[in-house]
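Subject: complex prediction, re-run

Hi both,

The earlier run crashed halfway through, so I resubmitted it with identical inputs.
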Amino acid sequence: MADSSQPSAPKPSSSVKLVLLGEAAVGKSSLVLRFVNNDFQPNKEPTIGAAFLTQKCQLPTRTIKFEIWDTAGQERFASLAPMYYRNAQSALVVYDVTKASSLVKAKHWVAELQRQASPGIVIALVGNKLDLCEDDAEGGDEGEGEGQGEEAGEEAGEGKGEGDDGKVRKVSAKDAKSYADDEHLLFFETSAKTGHNVNDVFTAIANKIPEASLKGPRGGATAGGGTQAAISAGQDSSRVNLNARQGAEGGPKEGCAC
Amino acid sequence: MDSLDQTEWDVTISGTGLPQSLLALALSRSGLRILHLDRNGYYGGNEAALALRDAEEWTQEHGDQAGQERRAFSQAELVNKDGERSQTGLGPSRAYSLALAPQLVYTRSNLLPVLVSSRTHEQMDFQAVGSWFTISAPLSIQQEQSIIPTMMKVPSGREDIFADNTLDLRAKRSLTKFLRFVSAYDTDELQAQWASIRDKPVAQSLREDFGLRTDAAVAPLLGLALVPSSSDTTVMAYLVPRIARHMRSTGLFGPGFSAVLPKWGGLAEVAQVACRACAVGGGVYVLGQDAASASTTEDGRTEVKLSGSEKVTTKWLVGCVDDLPHSFSQQTGKEDGKPWPRSITIVSSPLTSLFPTTSEGGVTPAGAVIAVDSPDSDEPPVHIVAHASDSGECPQGQCVLYASTASENGMEKLDLAVKSLLQSVGEDPKPQVLWSMRFLQRAPRSAVTQTSDSAREGNVIRLQTLSTDVVLEDGMLEDVKKAWHAITGESEEHFMKFEPRNGEAEDDSVL
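This time it finished cleanly. Structure:
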């Protein structure tokens, strides 16, 4: 179905599955909330299980619909993550710039993704809670220590007591960036609270998804007119829309015995 | 990591196969405490999808005959065990997602409305199964190279039938007449006629009652119905409803196709999405553990000893026969039937001619069905379901063929059927087999014969396993619904009807 809110000719549109991974309370859900609703909840409860959200990202030549799996950071039996990163085309691995151990966990996730996830998955390493670092808080109209409790992310109270002494940053941008470069990851420092860099992360991922993996492999040069029509109508050429059930045809033939 | 020892649960589900996972989905908003286990280190159980290396490990684990009586799969092997991988043109292991359950889902399947009403359908992609083909005079074991088998596309409608130049005018009229009968066979007007032919063998009835004499007219019908046995031993009561299902499913979600496939590895994807939904609702997932033994405690709960020796108590214990403690998994009878030979083959060609666009402006199919006649007319055919690389199961430029047959000693038949397909498909360069595995699957033959498979013993519920049918049957979900009803006591109209969760878009019109 074409997006009727678009006055101009519809751009090609594709879904991209994205999974968020990272230690508890680094702000995974807050990042998604900022991206999807442009909102921030100071004392957000920990995510149970996982959450599924969608958001569109407009690029100059195409529209990307992110299907986002936001996972729980404190997972009890390490059995959930594989079901979220299965078939994911992109992953956001999040750590907290004020907590060194969260980067260790992030590296663990990166290694697991590289070992287990789809080949060619686009991974972004994201250092969140930048607003807590006064020294380089670009977004920062709230540099005060008070911000910390609010940015505590998924587990209320976690991350408290890291000190109000102005040296809250525990992971240097340089170190994290150099690790990201070595592993060919996108790298950003963000603040879900101020919104700093949040959209940029998703846009960068959208831009890095290879165009070939978005179209149906046979949707290009060899496709017939029908396929082209489907693509220009803003649809994956092979996707069947289960919402498009033809009600009228059901009538007289209902009561199938099989 | 936490310990499970001494934890208490309302429902413990053993195994993450499709039936168990759908039950988990059905219970995901119930507020019940759910523990979902799988003895494997992966999701999907008998319906899993496997990367190439995982599939190779899987064949080793399921290769042994001894001690496998309870298990669905046996005698698994790689066909060219010592083929040099590096030279075969295979992609990296994880570029593959081979489906243990590549079943077709008819658009009228009871599964699809449930995925929509439970709001899980937006999390998966379904793709069309476009064309049906038949291959007659396939290669036989004795004379492998003699003649090139012929592949025919099954006409998909009246226009197709009349455009088909292999049929004479009389056959076309007869065929049209038969299809008109099928479209209304279960109505009052045709009741008498239906009663008079329903128990007749297919070949006889088509000849006597509909004037369909030639193979050219009969073979497409058998192919369309995916009849697993020979035409001599199949009765109209089996054939006609299946063709009717096909016809009535055509066009339901778009022109020119009647069945769909879940993208990314067949029914495995549905099972995973269902488990995720349960996890979102707070269900606890533990891989690598199953219910080793179970006993009833004094207060009527069930104590389950896990394979890791931890003990949990639960009100309900649910699983398929493979996943329950031995004491609950005795067969209810010998209705299981003989095991079916199956194979999975990766081919070096996209086999583009199998996936023509179904109609102007329609979707590009990712699935096709090929019914390969047996060289001996009293032997069952081989059915091949082809999944294009669009399915996400293999790299571009390749194709995965899932073959199965009810034939005894059918392993060679599967190979010959695949060869017949590759010879007759007319692609250039000629497609090569890059990799192949085969195995036996023991399962209920069809929902028709297994009404009693699901069973309850106290608070232990055994769910039906999927049948070996090429088509996903409605009985499986009905059985899940029964289990759900037993556990929740809720009435049927609430089954899988969920409101959007917080943060979920109410309805997304794009895509």
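Residues 157-237 of chain B form one domain.

- K.
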